[in-house]
Model the fold of this input.
Amino acid sequence: MIIKCSPQDQEKILIYFEERFGIQRQLFEDFRFYSASKGRIYIGPKNLIEKPKPVTGGILIARISRDIKPTTIFLQLFGKNATKNKIRLNKEHTIRFIQGENLDLTNNKVQDASNGYVLITYLDFPVGCGLLKGHHIRNVIPRPKLLDLEFL
Amino acid sequence: MKPMVPDQFKERYGQIVDDQDAFFTSLLKQIPKTFRVNTLKASKIIVQERFEEYGIDLKQVPWYSDAFISQDNSIGNTLENFLGYIYIQELTSMLPPLVLKEELRNSEFIFDGCAAPGSKTTQLAALMNNKGTIIANDIDYNRIRALKFNIEKTGSLNIIITNLDLRLFPEKNSFNIVLVDVPCSSEGTIRKNPTMLSKWSNQKKRIPGYANLQQQLIVKAFNLLKPGGCLVYSTCTFAPEENEGVINWLLENHLASIERINIPKMKLSPGILEYNGKQFNSEIKKTVRIWPHHNDTDGFFIAKVRK
Done:
């Protein structure tokens, strides 16, 4: 079940998106933030119904615990507006990443991304979320979304 | 074993179809792979260019500019599918949102009564460009997982999910538009699942039960409409009891009117006015049957009802 997100959590998320990815808060003005169990934060439509109680609203954008973890689906949708902490993969790495592999980019440039969650891109397409530590990218794409690509 | 169309099936539907041979032959042909571009995330041009680079031939659907047909079974293994730029969906399933295109422009509050797995719901969101609110309801919690997955994949931000038996949905809620793609005997999907033909004589026995459930669902869907609002009722079956029979029952018991459906460049057949000796209200000719041999699709039925 979802409830309206607290202003404090909403502000935390908006500041994180701005500071980490350069994604501006104006993009979310037409939507409302909701929260659910386990720190899950959604953005969805402004109007809700009271009964029956909604199961979810819109899409899951992040989880808040000690840190904030953005979701792959959020970054796929809004990643085009990101200006920093993006890592562009080549074709081979993209295939492996979408299959669920962690990547070691020792021989590649991690560009100017800093440790933490990063937006993975291929060409100009926002592909998903990874966790960067040094030159290592941990794959955090949810398992049901993984795919063996034949074409990219 | 090669599937065959049962004699009883031929007897039942031979009397209401225009071209029996073409119809029965079409049921044994594999259905082409089709998808629509998810305009919430990508433009049609980008998708067309990418598929051209892959060497995958696409044919645009004449009656829906966002939809494409491919003979290549690999379209599911493209980056565009992973990213939610395309949504693999049977063509007839694209029709209910499409016939509401005009109404959607001015509607704030939409209800999809049997929403999972979300093909039509996410298409509604795309046609609304994520504006307004869609309440997507389904009775089956397991199917809601698929609905959630598809909402997230397509980036559909204007959808709220509820999990309730539609018959129990509180009527203090009311909507400009209600869509109800009801559970049915699914005969129209034989091309996707030809083994259904061998089980058809058993499945046929369930038609009266489905029709009874559909009457309960359509009356609830109708009651959830605001005055002047529009309801789209659809099934993927050929059974008149589940199609014209249900609409006829609604007209007999409620102040509803039927609106004409027009989809340029698609061959549509009017709803039938008589079946097994039962006469239906003449308004029912405004409902639409989609026969598989007319447009190389599944079989489908749609009615557009105004309150």
